[in-house]
Amino acid sequence: QVQLVESGGGLVQVGGSLRLSCAASGRTFSTYGMGWFRQAPGKEREFVAGISRSGGSTYGADSVKGRFTISRDNAKNTVYLQMNSLKPEDTAVYYCAAQGFGGEYAYWGQGTQVTVSS
Q1: For residue 83, which of 9, 12, 17 has the smallest C-alpha distance?
Q2: Burial classification of residue 102, based on how many CB atoms lie within 10 Å of its CB (0-12 exposed, 13-18 middle, 19 or more buried)
Q3: Cα distance between residue 30 and residue 2, in whole Å
Q4: Over the stretch 75-109, which tens digit does the pLDDT of each residue have?
Q5: CA separation (Å) from 79 to 21, 30, 88?
Q6: H, E, C per residue of the chain
Q7: How do strand 34-39 and strand 18-26 relate by DSSP bridges?
């Protein structure tokens, strides 16, 4: 099992940037595919970006392509989400998650709030 703790959220103006971090503990971090999700008020949780165990493959939602970048440092047991050109619609609680052996996202952090003001 893996424990996940997000950090780096906050209040930022439109067009600004933030970098979220997700620190993992527990079993070997490099055995997990990782992802970022978000949930805005009154909306369902949605996928933002994912990264393979080695970091060699990444993928993201169309809404964030060209603006958000997911990366990981397996030596530091950490996955990152660099968010640039932020928009008000990016306001949400952001969660990191780790994939279980079946490929589903089985382990979740507590979330970090990102608020983009116009």
Answers
A1: 17
A2: exposed
A3: 11
A4: 999 999 999 999 999 999 999 999 988 889 999 99
A5: 6, 10, 24
A6: CEEEEEECCEEEECCCCEEEEEEEEECCHHHCCEEEEEECCCCCCEEEEEECCCCCCEEECCCCCCCEEEEEECCCCEEEEEECCCCHHHCEEEEEEEECCCCCEEEECCCEEEEEEC
A7: unpaired
Cα separation, 110 vs 93, in Å, equals 9
What angle is formed at CA 105 by the lines to CA 23 and CA 93, rounded to 5 degrees?
A: 60
Q: What average pLDDT does this structure show over 103-118? A: 96
Q: Which residues contact 37 (CB under 8 A, 6 or more apart)?
A: 45, 46, 47, 48, 94, 95, 96, 97, 105
Length of the chain: 118
